[in-house]
Write a structure and sequence with these properties.
This protein has 335 residues and is of the alpha/beta class. The chain has one domain: Ribonuclease Z/Hydroxyacylglutathione hydrolase-like (Metallo-beta-lactamase, Chain A, 4-Layer Sandwich). It contains eleven helices and twelve strands. The strands form two sheets. Strands 1-2-3-4-5-6-7 form a seven-stranded mixed beta sheet. It is globular, with a radius of gyration of 20 Å. The relative contact order is 0.12.
């Protein structure tokens, strides 16, 4: 049985700053944030997995510039990309996202939160909602640093937004592009992601029409052509193989057994952090069947088992106690 990774929403103290250009930086953590600097101010894209990491991200930005943070942009609704919105709103930033992203943050939140909490993840308070929304695309300007926010198509989520930074020849992709480990193909309890169609691959191809010199991914190191090619190769493999086995009349149990034992070496060699080949199989399979319940988790509950209730309560109590100490320390430091 696969162990659940350490709670990504819990307080943690790491994060690596990677310089991409003189005015664009990637803050590497379990989820990435991007920092874009203009003459008049700063935009941060994706606000981190929790408020503690958002504070750290803010402090890192302050080592680069004292310019105001004008915008906090969410590439999609997932909690790990929006959980620091409150911190940047408190610092004066306008939170920006697609209309669909704001809608998903409200209407998908209960199901998303219930699943994550049942698996031992302590999430904290709900993310601050976007203040400025747009239907498909919009333009922002940081001062001689224009930003083009655009929905290129469905990817890990239906609401995916890419941020073009034309002056730097970069694109911030959110989870449309993920590198460094096996991809996450959508939340287990939602109908999204690699749903047995080529929507995601088509979105990647659309992104490539802008010919960016580099892509800042939602997870993992900076993406260039080889990393993007590998993502397309992974998606194409599972789309083809799962459909083939379903069309042969295999049950889900038979399909998993057959595919997992015959995974090619190039798939087996990819590191697993969150996503796994099993999750990919289940995701594509879910897109090929009729089922009134969203997502694939109910089809194979053992894939991501529930957390032990007693241990979950203990961890929650420890986190609440820690948060109390942290808040007291902040009050003392602020006078």
């Amino acid at each position: 049985m696969r162990n659940i990774p350490e709670n990504p929403f819990a307080p943690r103290q790491y994060g690596e700053l990677v310089k991409i250009t003189d005015r664009v930086y990637l803050f590497r953590n379990i989820v990435n944030s991007s920092i874009i600097i203009g003459d008049n101010g700063v935009a941060v894209v994706d606000t981190q997995v929790n408020q503690m990491m958002a504070r750290r991200l803010y402090n890192v930005i302050r080592t680069l510039t004292d310019k105001p943070i004008l915008y906090a942009i969410n590439t999609h609704y997932h909690w790990d990309h929006t959980n620091g919105n409150t911190i940047f709103h408190q610092q004066g930033a306008t939170v920006v996202a697609r209309e669909m992203t704001k809608d998903f943050m409200v209407n998908r939140s209960p199901r998303q939160e219930a699943f994550l909490r049942s698996r031992g993840f302590s999430l904290g308070e709900p993310p601050f909602l976007p203040q400025q929304t747009f239907p498909h695309e919009t333009e922002l300007d940081l001062g001689n640093q224009p930003l083009h926010l655009v929905h290129l198509g469905k990817a890990e989520t239906d609401d995916a937004t890419a941020i073009r930074v034309p002056a730097e020849e970069c694109i911030v992709s959110g989870d449309t592009i993920m590198t460094g480990s096996f991809p996450i193909f959508g939340q287990p309890v939602m109908n999204e992601g690699l749903m047995a169609n080529h929507d995601w691959i088509n979105t990647i191809k659309e992104l490539r029409t802008y010919a960016p010199k580099c892509v800042l991914p939602g997870h993992g190191p900076l993406a260039r052509d080889p990393e993007i090619d590998l993502l397309i190769q992974i998606e194409s493999y599972f789309l083809t193989e799962v459909r083939k086995h379903v069309e042969q009349g295999m049950s889900l149990t038979e399909l998993l057994a057959e595919m997992e034992v015959n995974l090619p070496d190039w798939i087996r060699s990819i590191a697993e952090v969150w996503g796994t080949p099993r999750y990919a199989i289940l995701r594509v399979y879910r897109g090929l069947i009729d089922d009134p319940e969203p997502g694939w988790q109910h089809l194979k509950p053992s894939a991501i088992p529930s957390a032990d209730a007693e241990k979950l309560q203990q961890k929650t109590s420890e986190l609440q106690e820690f948060e109390g100490y942290r808040e007291t320390a902040e009050e003392v430091a602020e006078g």
